[in-house]
Amino acid sequence: xxxxxxxxxxxxxxxxxxxxxxxxxxxxxxxxxxxxxxxxxxxxxxxxxxxxxxxxxxxxxxxxxxxxxxxxxxxxxxxxxxxxxxxxxxxxxxxxxxxxxxxxxxxxxxxxxxxxxxxxxxxxxxxxxxxxxxxxxxxxxxxxxxxxxxxxxxxxxxxxxxxxxxxxxxxxxxxxxxxxxxxxxxxxxxxxxxxxxxxxxxxxxxxxxxxxxxxxxxxxxxxxxxxxxxxxxxxxxxxxxxxxxxxxxxxxxxxxxxxxxxxxxxxxxxxxxxxxxxxxxxxxxxxxxxxxxxxxxxxxxxxxxxxxxxxxxxxxxxxxxxxxxxxxxxxxxxxxxxxxxxxxxxxxxxxxxxxxxxxxxxxxxxxxxxxxxxxxxxxxxxxxxxxxxxxxxxxxxxxxxxxxxxxxxxxxxxxxxxxxxxxxxxxxxxxxxxxxxxxxxxxxxxxxxxxxxxxxxx
Length: 458
Ligand SMILES: NC(=O)c1ccc[n+]([C@@H]2O[C@H](COP(=O)([O-])OP(=O)(O)OC[C@H]3O[C@@H](n4cnc5c(N)ncnc54)[C@H](O)[C@@H]3O)[C@@H](O)[C@H]2O)c1
Known about the structure:
Blueprint: H1 8-24, H2 27-31, E1 54-59, H3 63-73, E2 78-84, H4 88-100, E3 107-109, H5 116-120, E4 127-130, H6 134-146, E5 150-153, H7 161-174, E6 178-180, H8 188-198, E7 205-213, H9 227-237, H10 245-255, E8 263-270, H11 275-283, E9 302-308, E10 313-319, E11 331-334, E12 337-340, E13 345-348, H12 361-370, H13 374-386, H14 392-406, H15 414-421, H16 423-432, E14 438-439
This protein binds nicotinamide-adenine-dinucleotide.
The site of nicotinamide-adenine-dinucleotide (NAD) has 25 residues, from α3 and α6.
């Protein structure tokens, strides 16, 4: 069941925000006249015709994609039709895994980097799940949609501003879904935050903090194949918030980005780039390819700040290099209270004993149970069994398949994919220009003003 309508409280607050925005912003700024004209259908709220069964083709079945194959096989009404990977042992492993589960053998496509296009010619595939290296995501999504398939891509959806616009244009032109698989929107805490925000319990939203702080230096041990074999070159060549969406996606949903508010402008700053070179020196011989990289460009810690059209502020951090405990920050602050993650903490008028001290642990757990998101109430236990980052991966795929089979709009659309991903290339431009302020494109072309916030879905 789906209820994309905001609650009465959040609808009132949404209208009040819009009134406030009108007073505070010039029409020229709101209009963002520079946006290119729409190419087709507005895709927020778009529901494709119901699919009785969801017939899937996978592109890229390495560390991440192989998990998607496994989880999709646990969902009712899913057929694994074809698998593409240009690394023969990886492709063979995935095909064998499907057969081992008693399923028909999927057709394999492994004849080079462009063989996915042959898979896309098939008429018996409805959706394509893409889990290849970053530089392939946008073009594979575009080719999939042009071939009449709904496209689902791993994060980030695109690496340049131009690619973000292409995704939007092609999704609108073809009337095909283009969803970035931001699994972190399906964590228990994130769903709880969305629920209390939509109920108005944090008041009017002011500020958010998001991050992907995850020590992943060990991926550099994957030299010939695997994540480190391609991701390491991004740290070497680029300097920006290269992986912005895990923390950002959920807080963007709380704030109603593209749906009542939008990212307006941003700037970024990077720390020195030291950790990768140190790791290479410590772990690999002097003539190793990682030690042949003369300059590592990407700052170990990159911090971006964003201002929204309604005047809210956001901080987004990214660090996959430093020895530092994992965090997505997940902080959302309003006029009545603040939730922060890692560890979970809440201070909220009417909910917690004090507002100048955090409520944590058992008392917070009580509050979280009381205001649990209905989707987590219904599916939380099954999601934990389904697994994948504590169950959020499975829950995301369950929502995707359920929406497609029921002919419902998806929880994330192409404008989300573009707005959340574009922070990457814009942060690179900002850092290269002494943290210059960058305008964030309005991928909705003004429709954010009349689109209600993403509601409470079950
Ligand atoms: N959402 C999450 O929690 C999460 C977690 C891990 C990875 N990811 C994302 O998933 C994606 C894949 O990452 P990974 O860690 O699985 O990397 P990986 O290197 O293990 O897997 C990528 C696979 O794509 C294949 N490939 C590369 N180019 C191809 C082409 N042109 N055609 C067909 N196959 C091709 C490779 O052979 C490899 O098997 C990345 O975007 C990564 O950021 C997301």
